[in-house]
Amino acid sequence: MSDGKILDLKPLDKDPGPSFIGIKDDKQSTYSYNWNPCTPFSSSTGCKDTLLCQKVPNKYYAVATAVSSFDENSDGSINITYNPVISPLDYTRKAIIVLKCDQSQDRGKFSPFHEDDMTTSKKSLYTATFSTKYACIESGGLSTGSILLIVFFSLVLIYFIAGLLYNKIHKGVSSFPEMIPNHSFWGDFPFLVKDGCVFTFQGIAGCCKRVSMKVKGDSYAEI
Question: What letter does residue 16 receive in the DSSP assignment?
């Protein structure tokens, strides 16, 4: 998700799907729905490469084929909003599935789908709630690079603090910068870096020059 949290429904997915079959409708007992979280599936001629398919007597309708967005609600639930699907008869179907965290639900449990039928405008909105432990989103945490940087700078800080204390307590050094551990090396460090860069650049330049002269020499030899 955009805020760095991780929502993984892959364990619930099935390929080939669908993973969830026969989800009920809250009004029509003869209607049902098939759903797969991630991988599109096909059911009969009406549902091709779909994620959510509505089954009515003797017919299938594609309700969702692609996810539009994941949005977190104030109560911690997640809305999966799907892109609208427009049928050949210019009827638009759109679905929103609300994911709720429930650690007691291993595979997950659906509430019946509700179809908000706006027949006059040739639209339908389908909504349902799906409770599962896989909706309990987790923080993405720190990346490997971030962890390495934290460890590196922590070690550098410990090195300097321990070195300062050692020089002051055991060696009796009280002046600065002599208290810095290996202060001579750190004083020369910028110049050593400069010398290393100059040496590397000169080596690369010399190598390129030799290659260029060799290529020119071969060209003259061919002439």
Answer: S
Greatest extent of the chain over all pairs of C-alpha atoms, in Å: 93
Q: What pLDDT is recorded for position 89?
A: 87
pLDDT at site 95: 96
Q: Residues of the chain whose pLDDT is less than 70?
A: 1-5, 138-143, 215-223
Number of residues written out for the chain? 223
Rounded CA separation 186/138 (Å): 43
Report pLDDT for 81: 96
Q: How far apart are CA 40 and CA 17, in angstroms?
A: 7
Residue 170 CB neighbour total at 10 angstroms: 8
Say which residue the tokens 């550098």 belong to.
Answer: 156
In degrees rounded to 5, what are phi and psi of residue 214?
A: -65, -40
Q: How far apart are CA 148 and CA 84, in angstroms?
A: 44
- Residues 98/102/105/106 CA torsion (nearest 10 deg): 90
Half-sphere exposure in the Cβ direction for 34 (13 Å, CA): 24
For residues 111 and 102, the answer to whether their CB atoms sit within 8 Å is no
Query: What pLDDT was estimated at residue 221?
Result: 53
Q: What is the pLDDT of residue 40?
A: 95
Sign of CA dihedral 184, 185, 186, 189: positive
Cα atoms in the 13 Å half-sphere on the side-chain side of 145: 0
